[in-house]
Write a structure and sequence with these properties.
Blueprint (H helix, E strand, L loop, with lengths): L23 H14 L3 H15 L25
């Protein structure tokens, strides 16, 4: 995904470049899902980013990913 800024006024839509570095499993899964949905990988990723941004203030989005597989247990690596 790439592009150059468009518009120029305050609040004007613009395009930016985004680079993702994914492990093989994650990339293959994105490719499979985009094929299943019949959309390009770029469109699937763009939609995912927009969905994330639209939902960011709902309280459902994790602000920090814990290393503990058990959400009710404290993360043993977390700083005190």
């Amino acid at each position: 995904m790439s592009g150059s800024p468009t518009g120029g006024g305050r609040g004007a839509p613009s395009e930016r470049t985004l680079t993702l570095r994914l492990e093989d499993f994650a990339w293959e899964t994105i490719e499979q899902e985009s094929a299943h949905l019949g959309v390009s990988v770029e469109d699937l990723i763009a939609f995912s980013v927009l969905y994330y941004l639209a939902d960011i203030d709902s309280g459902r989005v994790a602000r920090q990913i814990t290393r503990s597989p058990y959400p009710s247990r404290p993360d043993p690596d977390a700083p005190l």
